[in-house]
Amino acid sequence: MLESPTPTGASTAAEPPAATASPGPGLRERKKQQTRLRIIEVALNLCDTQGFEATTIEQIANAADVSPRTINRYFDSKEDIVLGPIQDFGRAIADALRRLPVTGNELESLREAFLQVVDSAVRATSEWPVSFHQFQQMQRVVRSSPSVGARSLEHADSKNVAIAEAVAERLGTTPDALPVRLILGSWQLIGHLSMECGEDIFDYDDMHTAATVGRNTFSATFDEFLRVCGGGRTGAAD
Question: Where the record puts its DNA-binding region(s) (predicted)?
C-alpha cells in the first residue's frame, strides 16, 4: 500500500534519476516506452469510467491512436494493460532501494524506498512516469473486476521479483536465499495489511490527500509489525 509531509521514519522524497547518471535508452526504446505508457493511461481512464468489461481493445486502441495489433505487441491481455502500474511501481522501488546505503536493516530500507516512490509518483512527469493517480485507478478496477483481481496476484509476484533481486544484491546473495525470502515475505505481509486498513484511499478524489493517508496507514502498519515481530535487522552491515 501506499504518511504526512513529515512521516515517522521517512525521509525526503526521491527525485527522478539524473539524466547524466547512466546512459539513457535510445530513441526507439523511449518511443516504445511512451507508447506503452499512453496505452496504459488510456485504458485506465476508460476502464475506471465505463467499467473493465465494457471497455474493448478497439476502444483503447482508438483513444491511444494506435492499432489493436500494436496493443497486442505490448500486452498479452486487457487485464495486463490495466495492471501495468504494478510492474512500474515494483521496478521503481527496486531502483530506489539500490540508491540507498546498506544499513543492515533491509525492511527499513524498503520502507524508505517505497515512501520515496510514493512521493515521486504524486508529482509524476514524463521523466518519472510512475503515477499515484494511475495506481488509484488500477486498484478501483481490480476491486470491480474479478478477472483483473485474479490476474493482479500474478503481477504482484512478478513485481516482487524485481524487489527481491535488489535486496539480494544488497545482501550479497541470491534472490532465493532464505534471508531475502524472509524479508520479502514480511514486506508482502505489511503491504497486504496496510492495503486492507487503507482501502478507501483509492476513492479519494484528491490525489495528495489519498497519498498522505496512504503513507500514514502504511507507516503505522509497518511500525506495528516491527513492534510485534521485532526489528528486522539482517546483520549485513554494522
Answer: 56-75
Helix/strand/coil percentages in the chain, nearest 5:
70, 0, 30
Tens of pLDDT, residues 66-102 = 999 999 999 999 999 999 999 889 999 999 999 999 9
Q: How many residues are there in the chain?
A: 238
Position 113 in a domain: yes
Q: All 3 cell numbers of residue 211? A: 497519498
Distance CA 155, CA 153 (A): 5
Considering the entire predicted model, what is its pTM? Answer: 0.78
At residue 16, the 3 state secondary structure works out as coil
Q: Decide: helix, strand or coil at residue 189.
A: helix
Looking up cell 505487441 gives 73
pLDDT in tens, 140-182: 999 999 999 999 888 878 888 999 999 999 999 999 999 999 9
User: 147: domain range?
Assistant: 79-230
